[in-house]
Design goal:
Length: 94
């Protein structure tokens, strides 16, 4: 067993743990925002739709937050994938 393999395993496990720790809250908040948007659209359809100019000319704050959370989740999934790659590379180099 080489030092390089041990280092890759340790780094891979750290990256996977970090990715899980950071992606879970963002994914949970994203799901909550999606449920709130779905609820608001059901309410609008029940009330006949809102006839205001708000949101007609651009994205809402919730839309911007949703995009930011999606970027965060994608970033941490990529970090986790790099961790998995490092784990596999450690086994290959062993």
């Amino acid at each position: 067993m080489s030092i390089v393999a041990l280092g890759l395993w340790a780094a891979g496990l750290v990256l996977i743990g970090l990715a899980i720790w950071r992606a879970r809250p963002a994914q949970a908040r994203l799901g909550e925002l999606d449920r709130l948007a779905e609820n608001a659209s059901r309410y609008d359809s029940w009330r006949g739709g809102r006839k205001t100019a708000v949101g007609a000319d651009g994205p809402s704050g919730a839309d911007l937050m949703r995009d930011m959370l999606r970027r965060q989740v994608r970033l941490w999934v990529a970090v986790g994938a790099a961790g998995v790659f490092m784990l596999v590379a450690g086994f290959v180099l062993r």
